[in-house]
Design goal:
alpha/beta, Rossmann fold, Alpha-Beta Plaits, six-stranded mixed sheet, 14 strands, elongated, binds adenosine-5'-triphosphate, ATP-binding, ATP hydrolysis activity
Length: about 300
């Protein structure tokens, strides 16, 4: 039987008296980009450090492709690459020197190292800077070097801790695209505290709150929580909220000022279409309409409540 790429069983860790993560179980059975989502202090870095064998959990086990990380750390670590929150770069080396050093650390035979470095330089789009000192690179390029060291040994799994943190908007898009590219050949787990980041880059979400898993599933499943029963709409001219209230299945209408309305409905899915039809029929001259997304705080609260009830 095929082993899951990652399996965590009852993972718990405490640094001092308080548990940083508690009783976490999950499996990654198929390839894709998995977003580990949670606010600051929710336990993401603790989880990632444990998954990568950097931190020994107080309790629980991690298996990478069926290899128990406690029993055979070298084999398990050979299957993965890790980019911690602070990239482990030697800034006084050139990219070439640094990646050759990493290839050695990853036990790539000396005569294959140049080839491995060339491949990863190409993959990460940094070949033209290979002779440059890492200290003289922009944040985005330093992060590319960080990703390059994580994939130099062509691992099955790559774990990236907040890979877009501190980058400017252009660099964020570039790094996100690079992550999508490297994920074509392997599984990627990335952590972030930004909901928009997982929605833009990931296929699956594992959400942590106070060290516990409060959601695990696909981004589509998660979006059902993100889209509550509210629609925001703007018309070119203000119309009475009464007209909107007459549409079947509209539960309530709130006027937001000017010609903007928040419409509470039973289910957002078919109501967007119904309201557009009514707008055309009644000549409302609709300017903008969309399902209102919940803030991450609201989703956290919702999911945490659900978790404590189950
Ligand atoms: N070395 C440490 N010693 C003591 N407590 C720690 C240590 N590292 C983390 N913690 C605590 O464990 C909890 C989880 O922290 P962790 O860094 O894993 O969260 P995080 O979700 O990665 O947060 P951030 O996004 O801020 O890095 C927090 O309460 C944090 O204060």
């Amino acid at each position: 039987m095929k082993q899951p790429i990652v399996k965590a069983v009852q993972l718990s860790h405490r640094y001092t008296a308080q548990w940083a993560i508690r009783d976490i179980d999950f499996e990654i059975p198929v390839r894709g980009i998995y977003g580990l989502l949670g606010s600051n202090g929710s336990g993401k870095s603790t989880m990632m450090n444990i998954l990568c064998g950097v931190l020994k959990p107080t309790k629980g086990d991690v298996f990478i492709n069926g290899v128990d990380i406690r029993k055979d750390a070298i084999a398990a670590k050979g299957l993965m690459g890790f980019l911690p929150q602070r990239p482990p770069l030697h800034i006084d080396l050139t990219i070439d020197e640094f990646l050759t050093h990493c290839a050695g650390l990853r036990l790539i035979p000396r005569k294959e190292q140049a080839n491995a470095v060339n491949k990863v330089l190409e993959k990460c789009g940094i070949t033209h800077f290979r002779k440059r000192l890492i200290r003289n690179l922009s944040g985005g390029y330093q992060q590319r070097v960080g990703i390059a060291q994580a994939i130099i040994h062509n691992p099955e799994l790559v774990v990236l801790d907040e890979p877009t943190n501190g980058l400017d908007p252009n660099q964020i898009v570039e790094i996100r695209n690079l992550i999508k590219e490297i994920a074509e050949e392997r599984t990627v787990i990335l952590s972030t505290h930004m909901l928009s980041e997982v929605q833009a880059a990931c296929n699956y979400i594992l959400m942590l709150a106070d060290g516990r898993v409060v959601f695990s599933g696909s981004v589509d499943e998660f979006d059902r929580y993100a889209a509550p029963g509210t629609i925001l709409l703007t018309m070119l001219e203000p119309r009475g909220a009464e007209e909107l209230k007459r549409i079947p299945n509209v539960v309530a209408v709130e006027t937001l000022g000017g010609s903007r309305y928040r419409v509470k409905v039973d289910s957002v899915d078919d109501m967007l279409e119904k309201i557009i039809d009514q707008s055309v029929h009644n000549g409302w001259r609709l300017k903008e309409i969309n399902a209102e997304k919940n803030s991450m705080d609201t989703i956290f609260a919702e999911l945490s409540k659900k978790q404590s009830r189950s």
